[in-house]
Amino acid sequence: MSDVLKLGVPKGSLQNATVALFKSAGWRINVNGRSYFPEIDDNEIECAICRAQEMSSYVENGTLDVGLTGKDWIAENESDVHVVGDLVYSKVSARPARWILAVPFDSPIKTLADLNGKKIATELVGFTRRYFEEKGIAVQVEFSWGATEAKVVSGLADAVVEVTETGSTIKAHGLRIIHELMQTNTQLIANHTAWQNPVKRKKIEQIDLLLRGALLGEKMVGLKMNVSEAKLDTIVATLPSLHAPTVAPLYHSKWFSVEIIVSVDKVRDLIPELISNGAEGIIEYPLNKVI
Q1: 252: number of Cβ within 10 Å
Q2: How far apart are CA 290 and CA 221, in angstroms?
Q3: pLDDT in tens for each of the 291 residues of the chain?
């Protein structure tokens, strides 16, 4: 049996983000036109592209050893796979997406119980059916091929179960969210047999480690600055960092070079504070990975 790892890359909205994430992690995936088998610069990996909705099924049955897909599609397919880890990444935001139930803004439906005997349109059919069965609420769940919000607006369904991050698109279609069914994010999953293979498991763990490092690198930046000896203690006291800042004396000088890694969202407030406390020559630089 070959020890080459068969990696599934999700087709569709996650494809470009996944290829970019692997690039940051150290792998170049070259997607050629309509080919479903992109090249990767690693002789220990073979790639295949498939829909995120089908990924967990292919991993479960061994067609693929490992793949990236949403927690929602694993639940939808009730797939028996090994979840290596969560990878929260998106083109829109770093927050997990939510599967919500929405109705027209002027609908009398206020609670889940009000949906008894009603029709729901969704792409997440299996999960939605099980969700309402567990609550003892009789609903008719129909598969939606797309434009799900329009189904309820046009009266083809009483409610929709749809995925959203901010909820803005739902509101823009004149709908009102009444319940959240689940939160989802991208997960790295593996076939149980592949996970038990020492060679493949080592490769999967390498991928997981470096993907996580690349994702963390997107959220952090490096800051480097010059600080006089008189201001050093004041500056260091204000600095957030993973552990402690790196401080090095400048050549034949009473000045120091101070370097930290800090969250992107803290920089806009931190830099003005550093300047007011005496830091000079501040440089901000991006990070490829943080391990």
Answers
A1: 6
A2: 10
A3: 589 999 999 998 788 889 999 999 999 999 887 788 999 999 999 999 999 999 999 999 999 999 999 999 999 999 999 999 888 655 434 567 899 999 999 999 999 999 999 999 999 999 999 999 999 999 999 998 877 777 887 788 999 999 988 888 888 888 999 999 999 989 999 999 999 999 999 999 999 999 999 999 999 999 999 999 999 999 999 998 667 899 999 999 999 999 999 999 999 999 999 999 999 999 999 999 999
As a dihedral over the C-alpha atoms of residue 64, residue 68, residue 69, residue 70, rounded to 10 degrees, the angle is: 140
Please tell me the distance from the alpha carbon of residue 186 to that of residue 82, in angstroms, as a whole number. Answer: 14
Q: With 0-12 CB in 10 A as exposed, 13-18 as middle and 19+ as buried, what is 87?
A: middle
- Which run of H or E residues covers position 1? none
For 20, residues 6+ apart whose C-beta sits below 8 A from its C-beta are: none
Residue with tokens 């593996």: 190
Rounded distance, CA 142 to CA 222, Å?
50
What does the alpha-carbon distance between residue 37 and residue 282 come to, in Å, rounded to a whole number? 45
Structure pTM? Answer: 0.85
Contact 241, 252 (CB under 8 A): no
Q: Is 244 exposed, middle or buried (0-12, 13-18, 19+ CB in 10 A)?
A: exposed
